[in-house]
Amino acid sequence: MKEWTARAGALAPEGRHFIDGRLVPSRSGATFDTVNPATGAVLAQVARGDGADVDAAVASAQAAWADRRWRGLAPRARMDILLRFADQIERHADELALTETLDMGKPISDVRSIDLPEVLRTIRYFAECIDKIEGAVTHTAPGSLHMIVHEPLGVVGAISPWNYPMLMAIWKVAPALAAGNCVVLKPSEQAPLSCVRMAQLFVDAGGPVGVFNVVNGLGPEAGKALALHPDVAKLTFTGSTAVGKLLLAYAGQSNMKRVALETGGKSPQIFFDDLYDLDAAVDRAIGGIYDNAGQVCNAGSRLLVQRGIHDAFLSRFTARTAALYRPGNPLDPATTLGPVVSAAHQRQVLARIAQAKGDGAHCAIGGAAPEGFGAGGAYVAPTLLSHTTAAMAINREEVFGPVASMMAFDTEDQAIALANDSVYGLAAAVWSADLKRAHRCVGALQAGVVWVNCFGDGDMTQPFGGYKQSGNSRDKHIDSLLSYMQGKSAWFNIAD
Ligand code: NAD
C-alpha cells in the first residue's frame, strides 16, 4: 500500500476538456471538484463544460468527419492506430489505475485485474473486427447489380457512468471509432479523470486530432447539450433508466438522432434446491452483489432461494461474506471492498436499507457505514436483507450499492414470476443441476443476459444489454460495432 500511497502523492490529474487534440479549460472558466470518496479530499478541479464547449467539441469532430482523416484511412491503418492506442493504455496502466482508484474509490487491485484488462480486450477486439465487416451483393435480375454496404454514421456522442469509468466509456468509444466515426465523450462528473487521459493517449498513439474528444461537465449541462446537438448522429449512453428516458426525449426534440441505451437493473439469481454445490453457489452470490461495492448494472441484487435450501444458504452467506469482502483502503492491494462513489451516494444507499428495515426486511448482515474510516470515507458495509417480499421497494428499485435482498420460493413457476416481476431486465441467473429445468428458465426469463450455474461470466463475443427498461441496445460483440454504422443499398443499372 505504501508504494501506491507514495505514487498517489505524485499524481497530477488533468481535469480540462480534450478538444481538437488539446487540453482546454471551459470557455466560461467554470470548474467543479472531483472528490476521493475514500477520504472526502478534493482530488482535482474539473472543467464544467456547457453548450459552448460541447459546440466546440462537436465542431472538431465534425471537421474530422468531413475531411475523412479517420474514416478515409484504409481499414488496416485504422486497426493499427487502435492497436497502438491499446498499447499506450497498457504502458500507462499504473497511472490510469491510480487515477481510477482515487477518483472513484474502486480497489486498485480490481482496476488492475478487471477494468484495465477488459479495456484492452475491448479495444483490441474491435480493432481486429475492422477488416472483417462485409456488405452483400444480392441476387438480382440480369442488367442490375445490387450492393449493400455499411457506412459509419458521423459524429457519435457518448455519455458514460462512473461505476467502471474507463470500461463503460470504451465499450462505446472503441466500436464507434472502429466503425470510422468521430466521437465526443461526456464522462460522468463523479469520475471523469481517466477518460480525459485515454483521449490524450489516442492521439499519442497516432490517432488524428478531432476524432476522439472529451467534454467534462454535469449531466443536465454538458450531457444535455450533447444529447440535443443537431450535428450528433447517434447518442450512446450507459447510466440510469431515468436519464435514459430523458435522452429519448432530447433526440425527439432535436434531430431524431439514434439513441442507444444501457440502463439500470435489478437482476435476480434463482437458486433451486437441486443445485450442484451450495457452498460454491453462495460464494458466487456474494461476489455477484459485493464486487465493485455493488455498483454494477447487472449486480445480482435479488436472491431467490428455494425453500429447501433457504436457511442453509442464508447462514452460509452471512458466515462467508466477511472473509470475502472486507471494507478497506482502496490503495491497499489486499482490499476487496472500497467506498461507494460519493458521500451523497452513501446516504442514498443507507436510506434504502433503512426503508427496507422499516418495510419489515430482516437485516442479516451489515446495514450501516462500517466504523474506522473517518467522517470523509463513503463506506457501506456489505448488507443482506432477508425475508423480504416482492412488494418491498428493496426488490423493485435499483440500490447500486453493496445491498442484496433475499426471498424464498417454492416452485419453478413462482421463481420465474418473482424474477420477471420488475421493470428491469438486464441479467438473471439460474442455479440447478437439472439442465432441462435450466433450459426452460432461460426461455422464460425476461433478461438480455442469462447465466446458468455461474454469474457474470463472459467474453467479448457476448452481447451485453437489457430487456425492458434496462435498455435497447447491446455492447460488446461485433453487432455493437455494426450498430455504429448504417446500411446503404446501391442499385446499379448495368444493362447494355
Ligand atoms: P446517471 O444516469 O446518473 O449518469 C450517467 C451519465 O449521464 C453521466 O455522465 C451524467 O452526467 C449523465 N447525465 C445525467 N443527467 C443527464 C441529462 N439530463 N442529460 C444528459 N446526460 C445526463 O448514472 P450513473 O449514476 O452515472 O450510473 C449508474 C447507473 O448506470 C445505474 O443505473 C446503472 O445500472 C447504470 N449502468 C448500466 C449499465 C448497462 O450496461 N446497462 C452499465 C453500467 C451502469
Ordered list of secondary-structure elements with their pairings:
Layout: H1 2-10, E1 17-19, E2 22-24, E3 31-35, E4 42-47, H2 51-66, H3 75-91, H4 93-104, H5 108-129, E5 136-138, E6 144-152, E7 155-159, H6 165-178, E8 182-186, H7 193-204, E9 212-214, H8 219-228, E10 234-238, H9 241-253, E11 258-262, E12 268-271, H10 278-290, E13 302-306, H11 307-324, H12 343-358, E14 362-365, E15 383-386, E16 403-409, H13 412-420, E17 424-425, E18 427-431, H14 435-444, E19 449-452, E20 467-468, H15 477-482, E21 485-493
Parallel strand pairs: 7-8, 7-10, 8-9, 10-11, 12-13, 12-18, 13-16, 15-16, 18-19
Antiparallel strand pairs: 1-2, 3-4, 5-6, 6-21, 14-15, 17-20
Helix pairs in contact: 2-8, 3-5, 3-7, 4-5, 5-6, 10-11
Nicotinamide-adenine-dinucleotide binds at residues 159-163, 168, 186, 188-189, 219-220, 223-224, 227, 238-240, 243, 246, 262-265, 297, 398, 400, 426, 466, 470-471.
Structure description:
- With 496 residues, the protein is an alpha/beta fold.
- 40% of the residues lie in helices and 20% in strands.
- It is built from 15 helices and 21 strands.
- Strands 14-15-16-13-12-18-19 form a seven-stranded mixed β-sheet, sandwiched between helices. The protein has a five-stranded parallel β-sheet with strand order 9-8-7-10-11, with helices on both faces.
- A hairpin with a 2-residue loop joins β1 (17-19) and β2 (22-24).
- The longest helix has 22 residues, at 108-129.
- The model has no long low-confidence stretch (mean pLDDT 97).
- Nicotinamide-adenine-dinucleotide binds at residues 159-163, 168, 186, 188-189, 219-220, 223-224, 227, 238-240, 243, 246, 262-265, 297, 398, 400, 426, 466, 470-471.
- The site of nicotinamide-adenine-dinucleotide has 30 residues, from α8 and α9.
